[in-house]
Amino acid sequence: MIGWKTEFVLSTTRYLVKRKSLFHLLRIYEWWLSKKFSVPNLPQTSYQLTIRMIRELYSRTRPVIWASLFFPCEFIHAAGAIPFYPEIAAGLVAALGFPHIPLEKAEQNWYSQDLCSYHRAGVGMSLLELFPRPDLLLATTSICRGTTAFFQTLADIWKVPCYLVDVPFESSPEALRYVKDQLTVIASDIQSRFGSRFDWEKSFTLSNETVRIIQQIGELRKQRDILLHPPTKNLDYLPYYFQFLGSPSSLLFFKKLRQHLRESREQNTLSHRLIWLHLKPFYTNRLTALLKEYGCGVVFDEFGSIFWEPLDSENPLESLAKKICSSQNFTIPEQRITKILRWCKEYQADGVIQFNQWGCRQSQGMNYLLKKSLQQKGYPLLLLDGDHLDKRFYSEEQLRTRIEAFHELMEGL
Amino acid sequence: MMIYAGIDIGSQSTCAVLLNEEKVVSSSILPSGVHPDRIGNEALSQAIEKGNCPRSEIGFIVATGYGRYQVQADERVSEITCQARGVYWYYPEARMILDIGGQDSKIILLGKNGKVIDFMMNDKCAAGTGRFLELMTHVLDIHLDDYGRFVSQSQESIELSNTCAIFAESELVSLIAQGKKREDLARAICRSVVKRVLAMAEKIGITHPLVFTGGVAQNKGVISILKHELNFSPIIPPDPLITAALGAAIIAREKSTLP
Amino acid sequence: MKVGYFCTYVPEELIQACGGQAHLLYPKYVSHNEATSYFPTSFCPLAKSLLANLLSERWKDIDFFIFGTGCDAGRRLYDVFTSLRSKVPSYFLEIPAIDTDQAITFYARNLNELAQYLLSIQGIPSIEYTVNLIASLITGYDIKKNFTDLFFKGKEYGDTFIKPIGFSDKRLKNNPEPIPILLIASHLFIHRIINVLEKRGFLVLDNSALGMRRYIFPDISYTVEDDSFMTLSRWYLKNKVPCPGHSPERRLSILNKTIFELDIQGIIYFYPKFCDQSLYDIAFLKKYLTIPLLPIEHDVSFSSLGQWETRIDAFREVLSR
Predict the structure, then answer these.
(1) Distance (Å, rounded) from C-alpha A222 to C-alpha A345?
(2) Does C75 touch chain B (CB under 8 A)?
(3) Per-window interface: A 331-370 vs C, CB < 8 A
(4) Fewer CB within 10 Å: C terminus or N terminus of chain C?
(5) Distance CA B106, CA A144 (A)
(6) Which domain holds residue A49?
(7) How far is CA A234 from CA A88, A229, A230, A231, A241, in A?
(8) Which residues of B fall within a CB distance of 8 Å from C310?
């Protein structure tokens, strides 16, 4: 049960988030930040971009479109709308320390604890009316079917239209055409619903340029004396990979990140270079401290990888359909494993690590195949169990034991 | 005068209640053991002896609880319905029952006439049951009766984040190693049980008057936390362990008058 | 050629038209030891059970297996099984998650591909198949329509979807006033449950995926001019009662119609633990249905039968007038 203090805070917050004009006042804060930090470093840049995002989302000067993680944000930016990714925002809620509130709210409304907590938190925040109200919902069926049900639920809660893009697993001209035809219908609806005119050129140019920088960052991280700190830090930048791509924000951020990496060189190299799969627990925890304690660093992250070809503004919908279809390589075993092995080689990795998300059937269901393939190629795989948002499943001692054992394995003890 | 019997064979305790046309004649409680048929009969025999009435006067027997099909009875009714009837006998104004037993917990939503409208059960997981409290006493090295005293002396609010009993035990050990006081940990344990049960209740919608029954309704620590979380005082029957058996006896009386 | 499948979006008409014998695979419960090496704890028990049965070679007389993409667990079942038994002929049928016109066209194309594959491995020419499918669809339509009519007259209940021989008077005599309820459960796990519920005084009207596949909501008609693949695709995506996870509003509408027409008093929902589709379905139905719904979790085994019985008895007592 929520205590009266929390209930008061929630009611007040709910009242405030509906006052669009209040968020316009954030412009003053943004102006002040830009004066105070005229040449912002990486964290300051990220902070300023986050404030701007909050202002735009809640002041609602443009349509707000929610999307599932693998629905390309370039589409939404091109439409002149503001993208919101509830799964990413749920991670932010966990990082801010109050995921239990939306999770409990969802559970009170019969959304079981066995469901993926990213989705449960999204449901809870919607029931609490704390997330910015959507004007439209867009989702793909790629990667997992849980997302499909999640967005159907959101459509029911918010009473707004929802488009589900059905994405085949096969790679064929028919599959591509099928996805493209679905995007065509969505684009047409957005045009008539919001009076939008798609500016593909701008969105795609920004996205392609940003991707080039991301790839440069990827090359930098192959150098043994360049590291992102702390381990798993790159996953905190998820919005820039999935939500801001196709807008100036993403380009600005990754330029800063590239600069930051170029300027920081490690004195000591890592004992163990790891490839990180899937996402991570976003609530406060000792995972990164434990990794550092045992000399483990993350040299590459699956969710920071570029899995699509440069976008072509001459054939925008086909180009985006290709991006969507390519995302299935996160979930098709042979394709995913091939990628991981390639990264292991390119980044001279000593091992691979995945923090299993309770409720993520598609990734957990693949673990047997993943482990078998990696071990055959000589790469140890550490699978940690828990939940990325729900701290009720967190056990530090269990984490420590496993990381310690993994470290000993890599040391050959 | 005809006597009606209700027997509740639970996982921890077995209870028998004898009722006549006007009032409760007698009751008995025994630890359940592993033979529900024997213990059910034994509880009934004890109640008969206490009530000083011949067995031949027992007109109808209703059995309830998990062992209800193993004991001889004229009819079997679920403990949900029996609990509702028993509580209604004492408190006709009650609208919700929160029952926390040794190995399960239940939430029952009641209508105006004591009829069950909806219910929820947790009988799969130790969290939110008396078992959780019992397991943690070993870690804290206290007795079940100590919870009340410790909760009242607690000064720091600690959250046990794990609901799984096994994880929570591990978490408790870490907190002890950090120097946290037993009083505060005892309070955290009670709160964990209450929150778990209330999370179930929220699915149906908490309403009052709310009656708290089951073995854990005798735990002062849990009562204190429950009052705090609910923001109102639950009603606790004089003997919270016998309400289901009483309800069974009431149903026995009703059934025996049916044509 | 014996063709095994378990997803009810796989059209048995197509299999039959291609000269195959369609076998719906019901997994027998095994302790999940055989599957625990391959799947995690928090994973669909039906998928685990199917894998354990497949690996035990219980179905070694089945020549060909079709797996559907209806859910993540089903997809992983295909991935793991084919990696362990790569020589066993298996097919992965892409089933759209939506029922738009594009999806119907795409599914029709997928069904055509499946048909071509089935024909080619048997050496049967395509023209024969096309004629057979048209005939199969016409016959199938009549059967479904007839079944739908009987269902709404209350003449099809209990386990008749398994044994299509009509109702039995004996059951009615044992339970003079059974309470009509709708049972929602995976068709893969429903056999003994009907028995348990009937003994407890319920008149069980089946809403499992298998049973619901026999009904037509709303009516469709088949004409010779129509493309038979398109008709089949439309039939399964648009007219079949949707499974959990497919078209929630249409599913709710059909359930409400069934509840009204048959005076259903309550719903008992047996769902496999860790089944996301079912979990979302339950939350949705709990919100919108006006009759009581009792969710009961299972892991394909009957180890929790005692706990189920308590809930079922209490539910019957709640519904008793």
Answers:
(1) 10
(2) no
(3) 333, 356, 358-359, 361-362, 364-369
(4) C
(5) 35
(6) 4-193
(7) 13, 8, 9, 8, 10
(8) 66, 78-80, 121, 123
**How many CB pairs below 8 Å do chains B and C form together?**
36
Q: Inform me whether the pLDDT recorded for C3 exceeds 50.
A: yes
Contact call for B161 and A391, based on CB within 8 A: yes
Closest CA relative to residue B169, chosen from B160, B180, B157, B178 = B160
| C313:B78 CB<8 A | yes
Nearest CA in chain B to C307: B123
C-alpha A387/C-alpha A179 separation (Å) is 32
Asked if pLDDT for residue C209 goes beyond 60, the answer is no
Task: Work out the end-to-end distance of chain A between its first and last CA atoms, rounded to an integer number of angstroms.
Answer: 48
Q: Name the CATH superfamily for B1-91+241-259.
A: ATPase, nucleotide binding domain (3.30.420.40)
My answer on whether omega of the bond before B209 falls inside 30° of 0, hence cis, is yes
The domain spans of chain B are 1-91+241-259, 93-236
* Chain A residue closest in CA terms to C43: A361
All structural domains of chain C:
2-130 (3.40.50.11890), 146-319 (3.40.50.11900)
- Work out the burial of residue C22: count CB atoms within 10 Å of its CB; fewer than 13 is exposed, 13-18 middle, 19 or more buried: middle
Asked, for residue A312, whether it belongs to a domain, the answer is: no
Q: How many domains, in total, are found in chain A? A: 1
Report the CATH number that the domain containing residue A188 is assigned in CATH. 3.40.50.11890
Which residues of chain B lie closer than 8 angstroms to A110, CB-CB?
203
- Structure tokens belonging to residue A44: 């300051």
Q: Could you tell me if residue A129 is inside a domain?
A: yes
Q: What whole-number distance in Å separates Cα of residue B192 and Cα of residue B136?
A: 11
Inter-chain residue contact B199 with A391, CB threshold 8 Å: no
B236 touching C (Cβ < 8 Å): no
Is the Cβ pair A333, C79 closer than 8 Å? yes
Closest CA to B45 of B18, B70, B65: B18
Q: Chain C: nearest CA to B244, how far in angstroms?
A: 13
**B150 Cβ under 8 Å from any chain C Cβ:** no
Residues of C with CB below 8 A from B117's CB? 318
Domain membership flag for residue A24: yes
Mutate to test the interface with A, among C102, C116, C233, C273 (most CBs of A within 10 A): C102
Within an 8 Å CB–CB cutoff, is residue C248 touching chain A?
yes
Compute the residue count for chain C. Answer: 321
Average pLDDT value for chain C: 84
Q: Between chains, do B121 and C306 touch, taking CB under 8 Å as contact?
A: no
Instruction: Give the minimum alpha-carbon distance from B28 to chain C in angstroms, rounded to a whole number.
Output: 23
Task: Using alpha carbons only, give the angle C24, C29, C31 rounded to the nearest 5 degrees.
Answer: 145
pTM, 2 dp:
0.90
Q: Do domains B1-91+241-259 and B93-236 have the same CATH topology?
A: yes
- From the candidate CATH numbers 3.30.70.1400, 3.40.50.1110, 3.30.420.40, 3.30.750.24, the one assigned to the domain spanning B93-236: 3.30.420.40
* Residue A336, in any domain of the structure: no
Those residues of chain A whose CB sits closer than 8 Å to some CB in chain B are: 1, 3-4, 104, 107-110, 391-398
Query: Residue-wise over C37-76: b if at least 16 C-beta within 10 A, else e?
Result: ebbbebbbbbbbbbbbbbbeeebeebbbbbbbbbbbbbbb
pLDDT tens-digit readout, B130-142 = 999 999 999 999 9
Identify the pLDDT of residue C31.
Answer: 65
pLDDT (tens digit per residue) in A230-261: 889 999 999 999 999 999 999 999 999 999 99
Residue-wise pLDDT tens digits, A67-121: 999 999 999 999 999 999 999 999 999 999 999 999 999 999 999 999 999 999 9
- Residues from chain A that touch C105, judged by Cβ atoms under 8 A, are 178
Nearest-CA distance from A15 to chain B in Å? Answer: 24
